[in-house]
Amino acid sequence: MPQPPRSPTDSGSMQDKSASTRDGCTNIIWTLLLVGYVIPKIFLYIQRLFSPILRIPGPWVHKLTFLPLKVAIAKGESHYFTVNLHKQYGPIVALSPTMISVADAGEIKRINQIEDWPRSEAVYGNFRQDPQRPTLLAFTDKKAYSQRQRLVSSMFGLRYVRSMQPLMLNCISVLMEELETRRRSGTATVDMQHMIQSLAADIIGVTTFGQTFDLTVTKRRALIANCKEPPREDLLQKMVEAADQDNHPGSTFRSSDVQDEVVVLLIAGSEATANAELFTLINLLRNMQKLATLYEEIDRRYPKGDDRQTDCDYSMPGMTYLQACIDETMRLVPGQATGSPRESLKDETLLGYSVPKGTTVFPTTRVCIGKHFAAQEMHLSLMSLLRKFRFKYIPGQDESTVFRIAQQMRGSRYMMKVSLR
């Protein structure tokens, strides 16, 4: 049967109910938003207004919000951000509501050595693929870090690192041949940033995986081919053996840890060393008198016409000027520009300022577990290059840096003029 038509009153009543329902849903949403986000944010900002961090030198906005620091990190400029704050405000500055930076030698020694504060969970927690299985880079628990450090550091002992010298020299010889080929007409303009980065990656490849990536002679990132040579005891093999439960029952090192630590070696190891070599060369080219002094030291140790291969045991102890140039470069352009962040486990006092428990503190130094490996690679690479070639500075290039894995050139290439000595 046909339904009787609805009266205007019935239609208006239904519209009122629909509007009332919508208003009710809107009110619920606003209430949830207010209770779940706005009110906690208000309390958080009130808490920050009474935090001891507020009394530490630095812009007020940094003490109330993380936004300025996050913007600097996103732009790769966290190192400039921190350095500029220290220049303006002094040896202790607030970076964010829960992070500060300290540039006082006494307090840095206290944090890093005397009291050995643990690594910051707020920072290193972001570097874990598996929160329960961090790499050596991302450990914050001291006991677990010490166990992994002992395991991995045994692979970077000086004797074992010296045994890798022939492998490193083989990679360097490929780079030397490539430069020779490019400068056949006399002087060549070469992208030394690409060359040095490729060399560092090839060295990591041959010492970690047993075979070079062949990046020095091609810009194409080659895959590792099946090695036809007898297997070598490279770093990867040592890690695999450490994770072998049959040979090391009860070992906390697992197969998944091998994968994660190798990624750290491949990326962080090659990047940091390559950048240090490149910045050392650039600084020398900008200071020709210093470069001339270094050439004199090189010629005293390795006279012209001497076919002896560069050898760390022979030349490192006596090449004090070269090491001073490397050290000064790493001071001026440190790989980890803001240091290894630590965390206060209790309320502390730094330079007379109260620092609440849980604050992340950035001291300005960092110790590298692979220092022997990096020192050997830098010595062999720079010595071999400077023994044979002269490099000339090309002005007008972008020499600004960004901080990603390590402090590195902002530009994708850096050109130098290369000729035979």
Automatic annotation (TrEMBL):
Q: Which domain of life is it from?
A: Eukaryota
Q: Which UniProt keywords apply?
A: Membrane, Monooxygenase, Oxidoreductase, Transmembrane, Transmembrane helix
Q: Which InterPro entries does the protein's record reference? A: Cyt_P450, Cyt_P450_E_grp-I, Cyt_P450_sf, Cytochrome_P450_monoxygenase
Answer whether the UniProt record assigns the keyword Oxidoreductase to this protein: yes
Compositional bias (Polar residues) at which positions? 8-21
SUPFAM superfamilies xref list: Cytochrome P450
Region (Disordered) residue spans: 1-21
List where the protein spans the membrane. Answer: 28-46
Molecular function (GO) terms listed? heme binding; iron ion binding; monooxygenase activity; oxidoreductase activity, acting on paired donors, with incorporation or reduction of molecular oxygen
Q: Which family does it belong to?
A: Belongs to the cytochrome P450 family.
Designated name of the protein: Cytochrome P450
Organism the protein comes from: Aspergillus homomorphus (strain CBS 101889)
